Amino acid sequence: MNIIILITLVIILAGISIIYNTKYILTILLALELILLNLTVFNVYISFEHSNLNLAQFSIFILTLSAVEASIGISLIALLSRNFSSTSVDNLNTLKN
């Protein structure tokens, strides 16, 4: 069980480091998807380990959150590429107006 927690923690930290070290929004979205899917798999593993299927219902919520995050991210990518011909995070402040 400790190795599963360690692997989960390493993947989450890798996703966070990708988020902080990149400047393109598509890479950030992929890292967020990596983190959310990792949390989903870990939650399912813990629910089957403890024979508590109520925890597995939380995985459906995480997957729904992941789908919403992806749709908002795709709309941001469409806005950035249409207005600036680039998907850099630096251009997000200029979308306010």
From TrEMBL:
One of its GO terms (cellular component) is membrane. Gene3D superfamilies: 1.10.287.3510. The keyword Translocase applies. The chain crosses the membrane at residues 24-46, 58-80. It is found in: Membrane. This is NADH-ubiquinone oxidoreductase chain 4L. Pfam families: Oxidored_q2. Keywords: Membrane, Mitochondrion, NAD, Translocase, Transmembrane, Transmembrane helix. Belongs to the complex I subunit 4L family. The keyword Transit peptide does not apply. It is a multi-pass membrane protein. InterPro entries: NUOK/Mnh_C1-like (IPR039428).
